[in-house]
Sequence to fold (106 residues):
Amino acid sequence: MKPYMPDFQYFLSNAATEDEDRYKTSVVIKCWFIVVKYIKDPVMREKLFEVIKLLHDRLKQNTAVEYVDIFIKYLANTDNKSRCVKTIETIFPDRGADLIKGWKNM
Fold:
């Protein structure tokens, strides 16, 4: 069976020590890296603004909204949820409540 077993390599990185400017190849990868790096840091609120702005400026609107939704759902499932809720309500004053509907009970 050994010839049929895949041989995978993986990349392991400590996001806390990495420089976010290192990830310039893709806006999505850079944004994901920022989310992972600052997920437990109080500065995540400001970084979330940066992530959303990067996605908005560099991607088509529908694609940007999809990635924002993915990143926000990821943040909502962390111990940083209350900070994320406040940030979303600040960034999207008109639609924030709709985006986080049900999160407070998660």
About this structure: The chain has five helices and no strands. Residues 25-105 form one domain.
